[in-house]
Design brief:
The structure is a single chain. The protein is α/β, with parallel strands linked by helices. Helix content is 44%, strand content 15%. It is built from 22 helices and 15 strands. A six-stranded mixed sheet has the order 3-4-14-9-10-13, sandwiched between helices. Strands 8-5-6-7-15 form a five-stranded parallel sheet, sandwiched between helices. Strands 1-2 form a two-stranded antiparallel sheet. The longest helix is centred in the middle third of the chain and has 20 residues. The radius of gyration is 21 Å and the shape is globular. The model has no long low-confidence stretch (mean pLDDT 96).
């Protein structure tokens, strides 16, 4: 079955997967969605005998139908290789009755590696397939992890440049150091005086600037995105949920066909949307537990049917979730409108203008797959401490939000179904918060002293990604105002 991609905001003619990957965002400002969600065509008995790379192929071949099998296998082989510190790529760890899906074993120790290791290869293959001669300029906003993973993925990839915007003062010290020390002649990192939503809005405005696009074309450039608004980012994320289920079957933890729950710490809604797509493909999933931190715009949405970004923006110890405009939610809203592009576009216009929209009762009824929860900073820190004391297992702050919300879900519902919790980052990325949660005596120690202490407590070797930045020189020190992002892009590109 050929799968094409259409916009969430208009009835434009659908385009091929490779074209959607290259464009990133639709010309009308909408996001690309598949014309149909394909069904898995392998049994879980078969999938349970496969490697991560093989499972990824079984998923990607169903969505990226204009890629040949050879092209996909080549992209997968280049992505999921020795950059990952385990041949399992995404192992499961059972702790306190849940299964933590460790998605941080890649080069930058965050779940973004799972998709951003393959996106550059999908992008360059797409460029060849479509005879693109322009240099592709990847333009991305990050709340902490996407930036480094995208930079690492695209560094020195021929025919590409990458510009990453991040909120200055709004990411962890390790996250910032990882980005500003990034090597590669085609990489550029810019801090903005604003929050992630400001950065994300600025990037979308640049994408939608038709006059700038014409200037770019004249100079031999075209924009694309590495954010999860790019369908080439989203589709590879579906694979690890299928793989997790297959591993539970292989390990005898569940029977083939047994329904599980999936709990995801959620900011921009891409990671949990991938789990939703996996369910729609036939993965036996009962509930998708959407875990928010104190920026609980998604929790409030699932509770009330009203999405309202008009609220204080809170800086938390889980900065990758400090988001008030969850871009990927638009794909879900489009689906629950009955794929009514005009209705969806009207909601997005309300969000852009008034900062709020309210869905209908009929639409809310279609959200029954989801259960929303939120965790305070205190609950997050409590989960880290409790899990360490009970199991000797240390998780990061984002994963702890999910763990705390999962505990609340079980307490409220009594549901004892086996549950996979997406563990989205290594605790080494947030060592200050993690170590302080375990023992407040650590709170005044220097960053790398905390990292050494974390190593001692966890028994897990310090990842190369951390060791590399101890002495790495800062290579990017540009900072701009949130209204100066376009000028900063033009300046670096020389247009």
């Amino acid at each position: 079955m050929e799968v094409l991609y259409k916009s969430t905001r208009s009835d434009m003619a659908p385009i091929k997967a490779s074209e959607a990957i290259l464009k990133g965002l639709s010309d009308d400002g909408g996001l690309f969605v598949p014309t149909a969600i394909p069904a898995l065509d392998k049994s879980f008995a078969e999938l349970s005998q496969m490697s991560y790379q093989q499972v990824a192929y079984e998923v990607l071949k169903l969505y990226l139908t204009d890629f040949t099998g050879e092209e996909l296998k080549d992209c997968i082989a280049k992505a999921y290789d020795s950059k990952f510190d385990t041949p399992k790529i995404a192992p499961l760890r059972k702790a306190q009755g849940a299964y933590y899906l460790e998605l941080f074993h890649g080069a930058t120790i965050a779940f973004k590696d799972m998709a951003l290791s393959i996106l550059p290869h999908l992008m360059t293959t797409s460029a060849k397939k479509n005879n693109v001669k322009n240099e592709i300029v990847i333009l991305t906003a990050t709340s902490g992890d996407t930036g480094k993973a995208a930079l690492a993925g695209f560094a020195d990839v021929p025919g590409t440049r990458i510009i990453v915007f991040y909120p200055k003062g709004g990411v962890s010290a390790v996250q910032e150091k990882q980005m500003v020390t990034q090597k590669g002649n085609n990489t550029h990192v810019i801090g903005i005086n604003g929050n992630f939503d400001d950065a994300q809005t600025g990037v979308k405005n640049i994408f939608n600037d038709k006059a700038l696009a014409a200037q770019m074309e004249e100079k031999g450039f075209q924009f694309s995105s590495a954010n999860s608004i790019n369908i080439g980012r989203l589709v590879p994320q579906i694979a690890y949920y299928v793989y997790a289920y297959a591993q539970l079957v292989a390990d005898g933890q569940i029977t083939d066909g047994e329904k599980i729950n999936i709990c995801v710490p959620t900011g921009n809604f891409g990671n949990i949307l991938a789990a939703y797509y996996a369910k729609k493909m036939g993965l036996p999933v009962e509930k998708l537990i959407c875990a928010s931190n104190e920026n609980k715009v998604l929790y409030d949405f699932f509770a009330s049917g009203t999405y309202d970004r008009n609220r204080d923006f809170i800086l938390t110890s889980s900065p990758s979730m400090d988001i008030l405009i969850s871009s990927n939610l638009e794909r879900l809203i489009y689906f629950v409108t009955g794929e009514d592009a005009a209705k969806n576009a009207a909601f997005m216009q309300q969000l852009s203008g008034d900062g709020v929209y309210e869905i209908t009762d009929d639409m809310r009824a279609k959200l029954s797959d989801f259960w929303g929860g939120c965790a305070t900073e205190q609950e997050c820190f409590g989960k880290i401490k409790a899990l360490y004391e009970a199991e000797g297992y240390i998780i990061d702050t984002h994963t702890a939000v999910a763990g705390a919300v999962y505990d609340a879900y079980v307490k409220e519902t009594g549901d004892q179904a086996k549950t996979v919790i997406a563990s989205t980052a290594s605790p080494y990325k947030f060592s200050r918060s993690v170590m302080t949660a375990i023992d407040e005596a650590y709170k005044d120690q220097e960053d790398f002293a905390l990292i050494d202490a974390l190593c001692e407590k966890s028994g897990v070797a310090i990842p190369p990604a951390i060791e590399q930045i101890r002495t790495a020189p800062v290579l990017h020190n540009t900072v701009c105002g949130k209204d100066e992002m376009k000028q900063a892009v033009c300046s670096w590109l020389g247009i």
